[in-house]
């Protein structure tokens, strides 16, 4: 496990996943009853039906990107994970945008949770795109091994030439 392998894209996606996860517990919409009394509002878990599960799964996948990048010995699996996360994060971005634009029938206004969810969903998309774009483990300079640590170039072992075969006579 090497946390030095984490790049800016993974950090942005992971922290945005935490923000999206937290936003589901914050009030998304303000609600008022007929008497004019307003309560705390509806959280993401209360206001959404299936979309909350989709946003929860995308948030966990974004947090999982950090773990996958740190634990895998090669860059191939995290890069593939980045690509898949980018695709599903587009879905979460669309859900968040629709939820900002369309208020439910019982809502009087938007709460902080819907804005945090929008920022989190966009952050996951941007972070996954950055992580896909930046596939190198380290900057230019000396060669590195699979973990990004400096490595010496492989030593070349010199072997003597094989003996030539004995001449064969003509028949």
Features:
single chain, 171 residues, mainly alpha, three-stranded antiparallel β-sheet, 5 helices, 3 strands, 52% helix, 5% strand
Largest sheet report: 3 strands, antiparallel
| Unreliably modeled segments | none
Total separate domains: 1
* Helix count, DSSP H or I runs of 4 or more residues: 5
Task: Please give the share of residues in helix.
Answer: 40-55%
Q: What proportion strand? A: under 5%
How would you classify the helix and strand content by structural class?
Answer: mainly alpha
Question: Using only CA atoms, what is the Rg?
Answer: 26 Å
Distance between the termini: 67 Å
Shape: rod-shaped
- Quick one: how many beta strands? 3
Strand order of the largest sheet: 2-1-3
Q: How is the quaternary structure best described?
A: single chain
Mean pLDDT: 82
> What pattern of helices and strands is seen along the backbone?
HEEHHHEH
What does this entry look like structurally?
This protein has 171 residues and is mainly alpha-helical. The chain has one domain (3-133). Helices cover 52% and strands 5% of the residues. The chain has five helices and three strands, in the order H-E-E-H-H-H-E-H. It has helices at 8-23, 44-47, 51-71, 76-101, 112-133; strands spanning 27-30, 42-43, 109-110. A three-stranded antiparallel β-sheet has the order 2-1-3.
């Amino acid at each position: 496990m090497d946390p030095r392998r984490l790049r800016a894209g993974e950090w942005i996606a992971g922290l945005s996943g935490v923000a999206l996860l937290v936003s589901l517990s914050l009030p998304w919409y303000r609600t008022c009853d007929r008497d004019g009394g307003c309560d705390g509002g509806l959280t993401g878990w209360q206001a959404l039906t299936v979309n909350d599960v989709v946003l929860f799964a995308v948030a966990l996948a974004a947090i999982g990107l950090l773990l996958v990048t740190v634990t895998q010995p090669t860059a191939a699996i995290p890069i593939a994970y980045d690509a898949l996360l980018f695709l599903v994060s587009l879905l979460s971005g669309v859900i968040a945008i629709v939820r900002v634009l369309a208020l439910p029938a019982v809502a009087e206004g938007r709460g902080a949770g819907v804005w945090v969810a929008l920022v989190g969903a966009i952050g996951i998309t941007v972070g996954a795109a950055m992580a896909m774009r930046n596939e190198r483990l380290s900057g230019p300079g000396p060669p590195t091994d699979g973990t990004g640590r400096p490595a010496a170039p492989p030593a070349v072992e010199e072997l003597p030439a094989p003996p030539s075969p004995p001449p064969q006579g003509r028949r």
